Each structure stands twice: as structure tokens, then as C-alpha cells.
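With this grant's support, we have settled on a layout for protein records. A representative record follows, to show the layout.
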Amino acid sequence: MSVERIQQHFRDSAAVKLAAMEALAVPIAAAVDTMFAALANSNKILACGNGGSAADAQHFAAELIGRFERDRPGLPALALTTDASVLTALANDYAYDQVFARQVRALGQPGDVLLAITTSGNSANVLAAIEEAHEREMIVIALTGKGGGAVSDALADTDLHLCVPSDRTARIQEVHLLTIHCLCDGIDAMLLGED
């Protein structure tokens, strides 16, 4: 592999992040406010996604339950991607499209937040989770890319859509991770003050 090819990945990543900064700073701030309000009202955040987005959901939940960069009490967050018994039972007994929706139905309460992560915006099981979250009177914060896909049409007026301005999955995932870090930092700043 050439050094130039590697350097191009860095350049492309930086360019997408700069474009995303312009497009997403205000919606990310609104998402922080929404998440903080839910947590302050004794609600929780459920997170879901497939593949790399599943890892992002787990990363987010771990940062809230544990800590991000500063010590604080754990915050209620749950990745719906982690229980192999639940996932395989739901996929077997119902359909893979229902693996997150059934968990949202069982665990979600009015005022909770669903962090729905899908790079394409077209993951059927994430779309089903969004629909179920609306049934449970939850707010949805969607992390997407590629123009937002079907998620764009599935969101309610009270939801937030953080759509990365890129069509490349790797670049979208890189910005999703940065966005998750912004969300965690913003929640901590609201809880602990800016340092």
C-alpha cells in the first residue's frame, strides 16, 4: 500500500469532518440539550445500530454508564446490540427487522431517547425501532449519512437528524464517532460545568 493512498484517507476524513462541522454543530448542540433534558428527568437513552453502528451504540452507552473524560455518576444508557440471547431469540422467533423494536417496546418509556445509528439511513431494524419509539412517546436522535435514506421520512418533527454530508461509509462512521464524543462531552459539560 502506498503512503500517498494512506495520506489521502487522512485528507478525505479531515475534509468530511470540516463539512460536517458546518452542517452538524447546531443539531449536535440540540441533541445534547435533548439528551440532557431526558437524563435530568430520570429518563434513559437506548441506542441501536448494525455492524460498525452497533459498536458505536455500545461505545456511547459505555461512555455514559462509565465516564467520558471526567468522573461523574453513571448515567442510564443501554445499547440494544449487546445481548446475544435476546438478539438471536427475536431474530429467530420474529424477524431480524424486529430485534431492536421489540426491545424498545419492552424497555422504552415516554420521555426516553432512542439514538438510532445507520450510515445508509435504510436499516430496516433501525427504522422499526424508530417507529416503535414513536409509539412509546420517545424522542429519536438519528445518526445517518448518504442523504439520510428512509430515516429522513420516518422522523417526527420533535426528532433530530444528524446526517453526515458524505456517501462513503468509512467517512460517515468516522464522523459518527466524533459526534458521539461531542454528545458525551456536551452532557458532561451540562452536568459538571465546562472546564
Q: What stands out?
A: Residues 3-40 form the longest helix (38 residues). The first strand starts at residue 45 and ends at 48. The mean pLDDT is 97.
